[in-house]
Design a protein that fits this description.
Length: 1114
């Protein structure tokens, strides 16, 4: 809940002077002091904020404070500048009213700070966003730039604004800032060339010298030493609490943010440097022949450097300091300048250069910050203008400044009164006129077009003939003498003739803020504000873009003979515009007061403050405010605040707020003349009444507090009690439930026990009955079974008995019959019945045997060894004999199928078996090979025709054998032919007979026991064939060859049989030697063939591979 507070809460003194009682200057002062001592620097007079300069930083501008004052009503919180800013901003945003914040007060009272606080508050509460923030930043950062160039240390203020500033901040309909426009008013340019004692030139000069880098200084041809520059006062070059170097960095940074280009910043600094250089140019007199002194530049170095900086031709500027050209009616007259005139020209140039630079800066900043969008916008103007000034020597500047303040006071009076009046009219309250001092008369004295001081001055300046400050004063003395606010020694008004406080060359004006004595010296000059045309032309010629822009009148192409408007005229015009501008806006006032002259915190100099509150017209302000009604408040908050004072309105009033207030005030018996009912507000005439209400409220609040406390305590106790009671019921309920549960469980279990006993008893009884029943049924069955059994057995016995009897009858009958038959046939039967039966039985058995044998006969193959099993032991011999017979018969059948050739083949095979079986290892492999005989088909092959014809008989065997060379054991192929008579060896290729051996010459054939195919044909000694020696041959068909050879030998009855020796070692006759052929087992080499090697002349070794060689079948 939002806590509603009021200005009236926690008040130190009175927050609003309107409520001051009694209202006297002393009580006013006392209230201010009281508040100031408690760090309350802000006090209201209605909606006007009085601000006392604390001269130290107070923790009242924090972001938290901003939040506190944001969107709160003006009188809701204790007085603060933020409340005023918030009020202005909200009525701008929500009610679409343009606003202006008018900040007045004398120099050092805190106007500039106040304007910055307002701006920063508005920046903090208005919209956010990238674009908006940039605008805000630029608006805020324009301040440091302007302060550097336009502020200076004065005796009153270390950071005194030496120009007037009015800034319009523009907002869109949402209240977001769009941009701004800054207007400046009359820079105090005389400060550039001369400063009063204890004061400084504009900050920028000092900042440049102490803050810029060595490099920059070198570029600007400057020296860091302040003492080297005539225009800079030495005595207060350093100000405590002011860090020029750091400020210079801030200014450069701010310029960057505002949007200055690097080259623009450089140009600006060059101009500042040029002003410093200008101040150092000095002149000396030089006598001319015509006796007139002419000025000459003393030391040209500074002049040279300055010209280099600005790109001006040195001679042109030098000439401009020595001559002055006056153009009149198409004529040019050139006059020389004396030293004083040269100095005047120099200073005029410096002042113009600087003030034009300042104006340019403002234009440039405006270019950056001006609102981009062309939409309609609302404006909040912040006016921070120089305050009312009274110095020891007051000149044209002070006159102008004070005139401006006069005007502001005028507008203040007008607007506050008007506002007050308007409010009464708005609220429908009768308005009674109030007496107050209206300074319009002073304004008229100064600005009246006919006989105002400014008009007089202009008249003097424009008048032909000699014009001096004295002639101007004379004029004033005649024209204004009658004016009650004008005082001059020589005026017609005789009462000042003897006033010694009024020097002769001065006039005095009774301003609203006090009397100010102005010395007329240089009024005319300053008003003329003339710069010799030669100088402006010299500047225009500069090769420097910024300088050229600043002196457009120097352009020879645009010579303007018309005088430029005077300074006074310009100022009056711009103040007029400003006032016009301000009058269209809703004013918000901040009136700054300086508590002491020492810039010290905690010091409240009463006389000083009294003086200010007098001339600021604050007392009048309060009076005006109170003339009608001291206090006003809308009905709702008023009723809300005081409704507890009446039983009818407390605690709630259901009707309209106004009626509520009426009921309330009537009930309180407040006299009717003390208040008035407006349309939306209640107006209270005397603060007394308000305090009466406040006092009552305070008392009532105490009572109410007690009441609230009482009710609260009662409520608290009651609710505590109720809580306890509720808890107790809950606890009891829970307990009862628990105990009932227990009891129930107990009963339940007891019941179960009893129940189970009863049920058990019943069940057992039933069981007994059932068992008895069952036994009865069983007994009946058993008895029946026994009965049936007995009957059945009896029947069985009877049947058995019957069967036995029948059988006995049959047996007896059979015996009887048998006895009868035996008795009848005994005589035929007894002799050979046994033998017959035996034979018959044997016959039957044999029959069965043979039929069985017939059905199980084995196959007709002679090699089939199977034979049915013997059925009876006594048939053993017969069975074996039958088997042999069957086999022989089967073999005979087999043989009978043979042809003659096949028979011969088998005979040969039989013979081979007789010869080699179990004797030579080669034999088994030959069994399956059929003996083909003619392997070469010698009869058919025409190749062997010749050979065939050479033979005497039919060829029995023809084959290729290998003849072993006797010398080395190597074999060579030969055709081996066997006929009935001889063995022929022939060349395999040619078929030529190599050797022919008659079979009768053959003694024996030797072969080994092994698997080889070697054989030796051994010849009978002394035969014709034996001359060449025995043959050692090797054949793949060894078994066939030897068998055939043996058979041929055997067939020839006239010849001896050829022996076959089977041995692994035998002798062979080779021509002359007997050589032993030895067969050994060796490892298989070059296939499975046996290899033969001649070991020595006695031994030929045949190595036979130990695996039985499988002879290749052709
Ligand atoms: N609200 C404030 N809080 C703290 N110091 C302040 C405040 N207002 C002014 N000052 C001090 O007073 C000095 C002068 O204030 P300034 O605003 O420059 O005066 P003016 O513009 O009225 O001549 C400032 O430099 C600052 O030190
Ligand atoms: Mg200021």
């Amino acid at each position: 809940m939002e806590v509603k507070t009021s200005l009236l809460d926690n008040m130190i003194g009175v927050g609003d002077m309107v409520l001051l009682e009694p209202l006297t200057e002393d009580s006013f002062l006392e209230n201010l002091k009281n508040r100031f001592d408690h760090n309350e620097i802000y006090t209201y007079i209605g909606s006007v904020v009085i601000s006392l300069n604390p001269y130290r930083s107070l923790p009242i501008y924090t972001p938290e404070k901003v939040e506190e004052y944001r969107n709160r009503n003006f009188y809701e919180l204790s007085p603060h500048i933020f409340a005023l800013a918030d009020e202005a901003y909200r009525s701008l945003r929500d009610q679409d009213k343009d606003q202006c914040i008018l900040i007045t007060g004398e120099s050092g009272a805190g106007k500039t700070e106040a304007s910055k606080l307002v701006m920063s508050y508005v920046a903090a509460v208005c919209g956010k966003g990238q674009e908006v923030n940039k605008v805000k930043e630029q608006l805020l950062q324009s301040n440091p730039v302007l302060e550097a160039f336009g502020n200076a240390k004065t005796v009153r203020n270390d950071n005194s604004s030496r120009f007037g500033k009015y800034m319009d901040i523009e907002f869109d309909f949402k209240g977001d800032p769009l941009g701004g426009v800054i207007s400046n008013y009359l820079l105090e340019k005389s400060r550039v060339v001369k400063q009063p004692r204890g004061e400084r030139n504009f900050h920028i000069f000092y900042q440049l010298l102490s803050g810029s880098s060595d490099d920059t200084l070198k570029k600007l041809k400057l020296d860091r030493d302040v003492g080297k520059y005539n225009y800079l006062s030495l005595d207060s070059a350093v100000v405590s609490g002011l860090d020029d170097a750091a400020n210079f960095r801030t200014v450069r940074n701010a310029m960057q943010i505002v949007g200055f280009m690097e080259d623009e910043m450089q140009s600006v600094l060059e101009l500042v440097a040029a002003v410093l250089k200008l101040g150092n140019i000095e002149f000396k007199p030089e006598s001319r022949c015509n006796g007139i002194d002419e000025s000459r530049v003393k030391d040209k170095n500074d002049l040279k450097e300055m010209c280099e900086l600005l790109g001006i031709e040195q001679s042109v500027l030098e000439r401009a300091f020595s001559y002055r050209t006056v153009e009149a009616k198409m004529e040019k007259v050139s006059t020389t300048l004396n030293v004083a005139q040269a100095y005047y020209a120099r200073d005029a140039l410096a002042k113009n250069l600087y003030s034009r630079l300042f104006s340019w800066l403002i234009t440039r900043i405006n270019g950056s910050i001006k609102a981009q969008a062309k939409t309609r916008h609302k404006v909040m103007g912040v006016l921070d203008i120089y305050g009312f000034e009274i110095f020891e020597d007051n000149s044209f500047e002070q006159f102008i400044i004070n005139y401006c303040n006069e005007k502001l006071q005028q507008i203040f009076i007008e607007l506050t009164l008007r506002e007050e009046q308007e409010e009464y009219i708005r609220e429908g309250i009768e308005w009674t006129n109030i007496e107050y001092f209206n300074n319009a008369i002073i304004c008229d004295l100064i600005e009246n077009n006919k006989n105002g001081i400014l008009a007089m001055l202009d008249e003097e300046c424009l008048r032909p003939g000699t014009v001096t400050d004295e002639t101007f004063l004379d004029k004033l003395n005649t024209v204004c003498a009658e004016h009650q606010h004008f005082e001059s020694r020589l005026s017609k008004n005789s009462k000042f003739l003897t006033d010694h406080s009024l020097p002769h060359n001065c006039f005095r004006i009774q301003h609203y803020a006090g009397k100010v004595l102005y010395g007329v010296e240089s009024f005319v000059d300053k008003n003329n504000d003339l710069l010799y045309r030669d100088l402006s032309q010299a500047m225009y010629k500069a090769n420097h873009s910024l300088i050229k822009q600043l002196f457009p009148e120097g352009n020879p192409a645009k010579v303007n003979l018309k005088r430029p408007p005077t300074a006074g005229f310009q100022f009056k015009a711009s103040v007029g515009t400003l006032m016009g501008n301000l009058q269209t806006k809703n004013p918000n006032y901040i009136r700054c007061i300086k508590p002491n002259d020492k810039k010290a915190s905690h010091v409240f100099t009463e006389s000083l403050v009294r003086h200010q509150l007098r001339y600021l017209g604050l007392m009048e302000n309060v009076r005006v405010r109170r003339a009608g009604y001291a206090f006003r408040q809308p009905y709702e908050p008023c009723l809300e605040r005081y409704k507890m004072l009446c039983k009818k309105t407390w605690p709630h009033w259901r009707g309209p707020a106004r009626e509520g207030v009426e009921v309330l005030l009537t009930d309180l018996q407040v006299p009717a003349e003390e208040f008035s009912y407006g349309r939306s507000k209640i107006f209270i005439r005397n603060p007394r009444t308000l305090f009466f209400l406040e006092e009552k409220r305070k008392q009532c609040l105490e009572d109410l507090a007690t009441l609230i406390q009482k009710i609260y305590r009662g409520w608290k106790c009651r609710s505590h009690f109720l809580l306890l009671k509720k808890s107790q019921i809950v606890v009891a309920a829970w307990y009862r439930r628990y105990s009932q549960q227990k009891k129930y469980q107990k009963i339940k279990s007891a019941t179960t026990v009893v129940q189970s006993y009863a049920r058990g008893w019943q069940a057992r009884k039933l069981l007994r009955e059932l068992k008895y029943q069952k036994r009865c049924e069983e007994a009946a069955t058993t008895i029946a079974a026994y009965w049936h059994g007995t009957q059945a057995r009896r029947e069985l016995r009877r049947l058995k008995e019957e069967a036995r009897r029948n059988h006995a009858v049959a047996v007896i009958w059979a015996f009887w019959q048998g006895l009868k038959v035996r008795r009848e046939y005994r005589k035929f039967f007894r002799a050979n019945a046994g033998k017959k039966i035996y034979n018959f039985t044997i016959q039957r058995i044999m029959q069965k045997y043979f039929v069985g044998l017939k059905n199980n006969m084995p196959s007709m193959s002679p090699v089939d060894k199977s034979w049915p099993a013997r059925p009876y032991l006594f048939l053993d011999g017969a069975h074996a004999a039958l088997r042999r017979i069957f086999h022989l018969w089967r073999c005979k059948k087999y043989r009978s199928q043979f042809t003659e050739e096949k028979k011969a083949v088998y005979e040969e095979k039989l013979e081979a078996s007789e010869l080699f079986k179990d004797k030579k290892a080669l034999y088994p492999s030959s069994v399956s090979q059929p003996f083909k005989g003619d392997y070469l088909e010698i009869n058919k092959n025409p190749k062997f025709q010749k050979l065939n014809s050479a033979l005497d008989d039919k060829v029995l065997l023809a084959d290729v054998v290998s003849k072993i060379n006797r010398a080395n054991g190597k074999g060579s192929a030969r055709i081996f032919l066997l006929t009935k008579k001889s063995v022929v060896l022939a060349d395999q290729k040619t078929g030529q007979v190599k050797a022919s051996v008659v079979l009768s010459d053959l003694a024996s054939v030797s072969v080994s026991t092994q698997t080889d195919g070697f054989f030796a044909l051994r010849l009978k000694e002394g035969t014709a064939s034996a001359v060449k020696g025995d043959f050692l041959l090797s054949s793949e068909h060894l078994i066939e060859i030897i068998t055939k050879l043996h058979r041929v030998g055997a067939a020839n009855a006239d010849k001896e049989k050829i022996n076959v020796d089977i041995s692994d070692e035998f002798l062979v006759q080779f021509k002359h030697d007997k050589v032993c052929v030895k067969f050994i087992q060796g490892s298989p080499k070059n296939g499975n063939n046996a290899s033969c090697k001649r070991k020595n002349n006695r031994l030929l070794e045949v190595s036979v591979p130990n695996t039985p060689s499988t002879p290749s079948t052709p």
